[in-house]
Amino acid sequence: MEKQPSVLTSLLLVKSRLFEVTLNRTLLTWKEVQLRTKKVSGNISSRLRFGVHSVPVSEIIAVRETEVDKGTKAEGKWQKMSHITTETNLCAFTVSYVEKTGQHRWRCSNMTFFCSDETICQQWVRKLKEQLSLLTYRPKHLLVYINPYGGKQQGKQIYEHKVAQLFTLASISTDVIVTEHANHARDHLKTQADLRKYDGIICVGGDGMFSEVVHGLIARTQSDSGVDLNDSQAKLAQCNLRIGIIPAGSTDCICYATVGVNDPVTSALHIIVGDTQPMDVCSVHHHKTFLKYSVSLLGYGFYGDVLTDSERNRWMGPARYDFSGFKTFLSHHYYEGTISFLPATNTLGSPRDSSRCRSGCYVCQHRVKDISPIKWGGGDVNENESEGEWKAIKGKFLAINAASMSCACPRSPKGLSPAAHLADGTTDIILVRKCSRLNFLRHLLRHTSKDDQFDLTFVEVYRVKKFKFTPKHCDSEFSDIRDVRENAFGQICRDHPSCDCTPVNSNWNCDGEILEHAAIEVGVHCQLIKLFARGIEENPPFEEDVSPSAV
Ligand SMILES: Nc1ncnc2c1ncn2[C@@H]1O[C@H](COP(=O)(O)OP(=O)(O)OP(=O)(O)O)[C@@H](O)[C@H]1O
């Protein structure tokens, strides 16, 4: 790699140790210099270099002049150096920067450099600030929504104690709104917020809060661009404002998928350094009506039933998911219907790949541009020359899942579709056909083991750009099919929601919310939104412990 010319180089002190500090356009580096006086050919002292520490300029948070404790000024190696005086005014500046501490966690570290005179100190502060001012992609004004009731109801405290001071340090100004009811943030974004004032929108909460902000921002962007949300074939306008998530929810799936960890300080630092991660969004329609957007999972059958049951047991807290999961597993319902889809033919990846979507993902960067408006295949199978061939699969399914990202989280370390991508314009449909309880259990357990969860005869996986699902018991095109049930004799019962007949249709679980209709049409909108994140970093570098702060 070509060596960058240095912008500034000086010998500076950190505590009592001497460092050669160099700033170039991309890196701030400090190398320890040890003075050892030894006779080489009669006289002269030589310098030996020790530990090296580098910080990318793009990961410097702030720089400021620092008060010097006058009592310490005469200490240090400068006393031993004839060419640097200790008699002058000792000055210092502090650099705050991102330190990667492992497990994808970031922390804000401070390093104070002491200079022999004020001019050098001011020069360093000026040059560092100049370099930071070139990073125009960093946000300066943010709109923050805090859900005080998400997760363990710690949203406000998390923001005030862990995030606000970092934003102040980075000279980011904020307008903060603590939400007063569900959909407050969505509706404020849709209609009231003056979005021209901001460089990004931050939500403090969980996946539900993120979903609110996504819905508000997409709706606002489409209304500003004159796009009809109910038109399932419309090409949606991209949202330019980035969204940041400060995790304060119960599951924080989106944070795990885009940052690798649900840590408020790490997320705040990704926002400050101005990271960008594009993300696909699925639009979900029922005939001519818009229902919802989804960024992670659309699940019918097993995952829909778990959510429906867990909503009835909210009083149990987070334990309701385990309880409902177990109950749904035992009930072992299957559902009949037809899934039609348009396979993603021009993508570089496949759902059975061993590679994963990571920071700077090649597959997402080289996605085939989705320029055509969404067109729906009529009937079960339809050929459309410009888009490829629709396929249809009719059957009895225990689960139909569409994963737009891996959905990996501590509960399911590999996720539902380990090789799914955040921003390649596709979603992975996973069909689990009717099988024995034991086989279904084998499939479920493989989400937590090394074995391939798709390598089972009753499981199929397809990477698609669009799909539609038609449940078997959906006689009228426009009827609401939620309450269609089947009694013991196989007859359809619509009239007795309280009788003991089994539902013949499941509900769709759309990113943790229940959809009102089973018959849906879904289209993937490639890179519709952007997050303040950079994707999960592969083997994030551990810093060698040569930093003077560790001394
Ligand atoms: N002030 C409020 N009062 C009640 N509900 C709110 C308020 N603000 C937001 N909400 C709603 O609370 C729901 C849950 O919030 P959130 O996603 O932050 O936490 P969570 O459900 O515990 O976490 P996760 O979604 O990660 O499981 C969201 O759907 C949001 O619409």
From TrEMBL:
Keywords: Kinase, Transferase
Coiled coil residues, start to end: none
Highest taxon in the source lineage: Eukaryota
InterPro entries for this protein: ATP-NAD_kinase_N, CERK_C, CERK_PH, Diacylglycerol_kinase_cat_dom, Lipid_Phosphate_FormReg, NAD/diacylglycerol_kinase_sf
Domain DAGKc: 137-288
Molecular functions per Gene Ontology: ceramide kinase activity
Any one GO BP annotation for this protein: ceramide metabolic process
SUPFAM superfamilies linked to this entry: NAD kinase/diacylglycerol kinase-like
GO cellular component entries: membrane
Gene3D superfamilies the UniProt entry points to: 2.60.200.40, Probable inorganic polyphosphate/atp-NAD kinase, domain 1 (3.40.50.10330)
Protein name: Ceramide kinase-like isoform X2
Native source organism of the sequence: Acipenser oxyrinchus oxyrinchus
